[in-house]
Write a structure and sequence with these properties.
The chain has 7 helices and 9 strands; from the N terminus they run ββββαββαβββααααα. Belongs to the prokaryotic Ku family.
Length: about 300
């Protein structure tokens, strides 16, 4: 793994009677996002968090704090931190493969957090053998291990030269889609309306390229920090143009470019890969300014981890 990346977990990957040393590295992180501290507007000083007793309104020091489970309104069972620690399962530092299943058998709604799974140099042959066998068999692995003080189920799948290990949500953590969609009306779309929708899809086909995605919120924050640092006028948000079609079919025709000439025209420049890359470049530049501002002490600092 590249320098600067620290393994979040080290242990063994076991499948059948074969074991190999492995390490988990965070694959997705929010550490590069711009964050703010809470400041006292009158003094300009940073505000510290203080815990207050809800009844006496007195300050409660850290050593006097404990855990509790609410059994009734305002009634708690006190749980000692040592009792909590005793419930944490012991780790044998092993990702034990439980089963191999077809790639398309698991619903990605269960996906939690991805990690890069890399081999120990001494056991690379076993690691590569598993990766290639999974590719050839078109399967993924379901494994289990104690990770970060919890027993976690992990989905392991080939990814480039290594493997991706994605922790999975438990069944009780995933809400049923039936309840979310229970008020969904039963509609049958056909004829021109369906054809127009399909036509729009065909004209908007592309490829998945995350490098072209712009985090407009982060870019806007960076521009705000830059303006404040340089004493310039604050950037004004662009007015959002809201389409107000009264007829869904007319809106579909407009989107498909099938309305009569002169009635509606779409003069907006089409988004190309070049434009997307320019936008991404502007975003990186703005973030660099915010980073400089943070390091100079003149802009909001990042929260301490």
């Amino acid at each position: 793994m590249a320098s600067g990346h620290r393994a979040q977990w080290k242990g063994f990957l076991r499948f059948g009677e074969v074991s190999c040393g492995v390490a988990l590295y965070t694959a997705a992180s929010t550490s590069e996002r711009i964050t703010f501290n809470t400041i006292n507007a009158k003094t300009g000083n940073r505000v510290n968090r203080v815990f207050i007793d809800s009844e006496t309104e007195e300050r409660v020091e850290r050593e006097a704090q404990t855990k509790g489970f609410e059994i009734d309104n305002g009634q708690y069972i006190i749980i000692d931190p040592e009792e909590v620690a005793a419930t944490i399962p012991e780790s044998n530092k092993t990702l034990e493969v439980q089963a191999f299943i077809p790639c398309n058998e698991i619903d990605d709604i269960f996906f939690d957090k991805p990690y890069y799974l890399t081999p120990d140099k001494m056991n690379a042959d076993a690691f590569v053998a598993l990766r290639e066998a999974m590719k050839n068999s078109n399967v993924v692995a379901i494994a289990r291990a104690v990770l970060f003080r919890r027993v976690r189920t992990v989905l392991i799948r080939p990814h480039g030269k290594g493997l991706i290990a994605t922790t999975l949500n438990y069944d009780y953590e995933v809400r049923s889609s039936k309840k979310a969609f229970e008020k969904m009306p039963k509609l049958k779309i056909e004829g021109e309306m369906l054809d127009l929708a399909k036509h729009i899809i065909s004209t908007k086909r592309g490829e998945f390229d995350p490098a072209t995605f712009e985090d407009r919120y982060e870019a806007a924050l960076a521009e705000l920090v830059k303006a404040k640092l340089e004493g310039k006028a604050l950037p004004k948000p662009k007015k959002v143009e809201i389409s107000k079609p009264n007829d869904l079919l007319a809106a579909l025709r407009e989107s498909a470019g099938l309305l009569k000439a002169g009635t509606v025209s779409d003069n907006k420049p089409k988004r190309t890969a070049a434009n997307a890359n320019k936008g991404a470049g502007r975003e990186r530049a703005a973030r660099g300014v915010a980073s400089k501002a943070a390091s100079s002490g003149a802009a909001p600092r990042r929260k301490a981890s």
